[in-house]
Amino acid sequence: MKSASCLVILALVLLAGPSSRPFAAEPNPALSEFLAAGDPAAAAKRIDAVLKSGPSFSDVLSALRRGRDYPAKTGRGRQSGRFGDHTYAFVVPDNYDPSRSYPVRVQLHGGISRQEPPDVSRLGIARLPGAVEEIQVFPAGWFGSSWWQASQVDNLSRILDKLKRTYNVDENRVYLTGISDGGTGVYFMAFRDTTPWASFLPLNGQMTVLASTRAGVDGLLFPANAVNKPFFVVNGGRDPLYPAHLVAPFVEHLARLGTDVVFRVKADAGHDTNWWPQERPRFETFVDEHPRDPLPDRITWETERVDRYNRAHWLVIDRLGATAGDADFADSNLLRPGKAYDFGLRTDASEDHGRRVIDVSDGSNASRLGLRRGDVLREVDGHRVADGSEVVQRMQAWAVGSEVQLKVERGGQRTLLEGRYQPEEVEMPAVPIFPRGKASGRVDLVRRGNSVEASTRGVRAFTLLLSPSKFDFRQPVRVTANGRVVFDRIVEPSTATLLKWAARDNDRTMLFGAEVSIEMGP
Q1: How far apart, in Å, do the first and last CA atoms of the chain sit?
Q2: CATH code at 365?
Q3: Which of 370, 402, 428 is a domain's end point?
Q4: Residue 380 sits in the same domain as residue 486
Q5: With contact defined as beta carbons under 8 Å apart, do 500 and 47 qualify?
Q6: pLDDT (tens digit, 9 = 90+) per residue, 60-112?
Q7: Residues 241, 259: one domain?
Q8: Are strands 383-384 and 315-320 parallel, antiparallel or unpaired?
Q9: Are 240 and 380 within one domain?
Q10: Are residues 152 and 233 located together in one domain of the fold?
Q11: Is 1 a member of any domain?
Q12: CA nearest neighbour of 144 among 191, 122, 187, 112
């Protein structure tokens, strides 16, 4: 009886054994080669081989989410790289561990007007020392390839792609910062290429530099595009180039549009970063508290072209042109200053360092005080002023009704003007921030479950990239555009689509299993 029982137990073990062991899928060599590709083009060439190997959609999705295996032996410390004429320095923590992912700081330098590419070995990579373990990247820019040109958009994309194929990068903690011209370049990237970045941190920059026709900016800029990501902005109160009081109206404009903005004014700072030791904790806390949402439920994007700068995360604008029923968006390019005190004095930064009076409004407070066109401001309330920013700073301290003094140089003589500060409060007219001249199109998206509401203007066709992390492919996908249903059916996930966008984005957290093309009609 005992031996029979053992035989029965043995038979049950033999029957149950193989199906009870955990199943380990065999590695797919073609998929492994896809993940090991050196760049997006090489990955795209390997898609057909993956498809021919016959993996299921779910198997490919799981493999892409897991990502590649990173080598333990790879460069650490300060290093350099190159893509054509574009060089860059980068610093990897000495204790880099490939089993965990790392944040990435990309920092754009100032002095972009130099005629030759800078030597990256001499870039000031220690200018903003950090206290967190992250990979830091320092691209090189120059007049022939400034931060606001397409060449640098492509350069930053190549650098990030290379880093992500070599090191274990946290795709949702890649952020962009910059100083002076570099800070201005941060604004450009936010307006033109938002998808890769978690947050934007311009330091001592000014977005209106990009409005100059002499800057050579690539295309048109749309302030509403800034609403997709948070900003941490720092400017100095005594900065002779971009003083905080001149930057403030534009930062406030972004906030009114709906951008998440922190604006830090260093009242006594010039065009420098001497404030960094005090500001660094706030800077790093902001970065830590604002990881990227790779698949945001809300997107706003505007562009004047569809060959580039036409994508924001899971939205791609394919064709421009007005259609019946276009949405009526407020023009995000119009700055509405609201009410302000108008003293009636006009100066020009290019005339005597901004101290020469180029116009005085008839009947204004400045006119009653005795100011004339051609006067050069030398002192305000007994304080010598070296430039226009000091003039403005002193005048901003005036209280309505207070006694004020101005000493001017007129016809080679110094003249003291005294009176009371009684400016007119006027509604300032709306003014465009950036030049226009070409039609654009805009799409605003809101996703709720499998439903997408789109508002469009000047867009005849756009594509939605559907992620299995956000959409249930077993249920219909419903798209409403400008109040009418334009799509409502079940969408089949596609392995080919999954691989197509994985090759381009090289991003484990932003994977797309289907495309929905929306035609808005003529």
Answers
A1: 86
A2: 2.30.42.10
A3: 428
A4: no
A5: yes
A6: 999 999 999 999 999 999 999 999 999 999 999 999 999 999 999 999 999 99
A7: yes
A8: unpaired
A9: no
A10: yes
A11: no
A12: 112
Interval 365-373 mean pLDDT:
95
Q: Can you read off the two tokens belonging to residue 187?
A: 């604004």
Question: Is 53 domain-assigned?
Answer: no
Q: Is residue 16 part of a domain?
A: no
Select from 406, 428, 450 the last residue of a domain. Answer: 428
Q: How many alpha carbons lie under 13 Å from residue 290 in its C-beta half-sphere?
A: 22
**Closest C-alpha to 198, from 293, 327, 60:** 293
Which tokens belong to 361? Answer: 């409004």
Q: Which domain holds residue 342?
A: 338-428
- Residue 26: which pLDDT band, with cuts at 50, 70 and 90? low
Rounded CA-CA distance 265/272 in Å is 13
| Distances in whole angstroms, Cα of residue 428 to Cα of each of 252, 359, 453, 473 | 15, 17, 35, 52
Burial group, residue 376, by CB count within 10 angstroms (0-12, 13-18, 19+): middle
Please check whether residue 198 is in contact with residue 172, taking contact to mean a CB–CB distance below 8 angstroms. Answer: yes
Q: Answer whether 70's CB lies under 8 Å from 168's CB.
A: yes
Query: Is there a contact between 179 and 108 (Cβ–Cβ < 8 Å)?
Result: yes
User: Among 492, 486, 488, 451, which residue's Cα sits nearest to residue 468?
Assistant: 492
List, for residues 467-519, the tens digit of each pLDDT value: 999 999 999 999 999 999 999 999 999 999 999 999 999 999 999 999 999 99
Task: State residue 106's pLDDT score.
Answer: 98
- Residues 139 and 193 occupy one common structural domain: yes
Residue closest to 217 by CA, chosen among 188, 179, 193:
188
The total number of structural domains that make up the chain: 3
- Indicate which CATH number applies to the domain containing 92: 3.40.50.1820
Task: List b or e across 45-61, with b for residues whose CB sees 16 or more CB atoms inside 10 angstroms.
Answer: ebbeebeeeebebeebb
237 and 144 co-located in one domain: yes
pLDDT in tens, 272-319: 999 999 999 999 999 999 999 999 999 999 999 999 999 999 999 999
- Nearest in space to 107 (alpha carbons), one of 1, 182, 206: 182
Who contacts 504 (Cβ-Cβ below 8 Å, separation ≥6)? 40, 44
Token pair 């640098």: residue: 152
Taking CA atoms, 317 is separated from 43, 122, 202, 349, in Å, by 24, 41, 27, 40
Average pLDDT over residues 418-422: 95
